[in-house]
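hi! just following up on the protien thing from before. the input was this:
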Amino acid sequence: MTQKQKDAFSKACHRLRMIKHAEEITHNVSKTCRYYGLSRNKFYKWKQRYNQDGIKGLIDLSRAPKHLPHATKQEIVDQILYLRKNYYFGPFKMQMYLRRYHGVEITKATIYRILRKHKLNKLPSHQKGIRKEKRFLRYEKPIPGYQLQIDVKFLGKIKLTQEAREKKYYQYTAIDDCSRIRILKIYDSLNQKTSIQFTDYVLANMPFKINCIQTDNGSEFAQQYHWHLHDLNIQHIYIRPRTPRLNGKVERSHRIDGEEFYQLMKGKIIDSLENFNFKVKEWQDYYNFERPHGSLDGQTPFEKLQSKLNIPSPISLTPNVATPYSLLTFG
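and the predicted 3d structure came back as:
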């Protein structure tokens, strides 16, 4: 029994004592009402309900209105719960998605009330954010291409086919510090050679000139890689050791990959590295062209790029396939 039910039962017992007091002790309704500080109308109301329904009649009825013309539609509630359970989105990000993909205008406070009603207002422990006093200030370079952040996400050992052996796979990620445009590619090796190959792939696909690339101090970004960038007339910056927050945008994007892409890939059959990269390219196009970002006030990275460069259409980032990750349908 919940505390609310206990309180309701306690009130019902109190009202029953008043009725029994009048019947067995005072034999006078007026004296009983004066003793308990109760009006005669109230006493007769509870006595009538007790005679009709017994002890259940002494429990308070719900005061909720029977009709709520302005209540949130059930299909919108279902969408909110789906985004929370599958993507751990907060009220602000849900508000962006519902506005962009469904034309639904809803306040963050309403979304939070719906989550609280369904006991989903608290995230699982592994999805909780860090405390405010430990957060770092957000920064942003003023021009697209002024600086890229490049990092590697280890995907673990994956067995692509029944006959193949398990191999380690790595996701290389480059993100523009200004627009958040990203380029992704999967490799089955991690060394300076693959880092150089990926960087050349990024330079060929980014629609703007790259002035600087920032990486961590991993061996895959060592001297050979450094001088390759120098030969391309691109500045190479290493972040301070043991400070991944200085590459915060690419690190945060890797967390998004895990939450919104790789968890949906569980159970999917990927029979080759080419097919793996095809799926990653779909996700990359969705991220760049369709996914609204909280740090960009609900814009997509391409919309941010358009506002900075004043271009009408993408140059070399045009998606080649219809992405299945647009969340236009739920469930």
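The chain has three domains: 3-58, 74-126, 139-309.
The chain has a mean pLDDT of 85.
cheers
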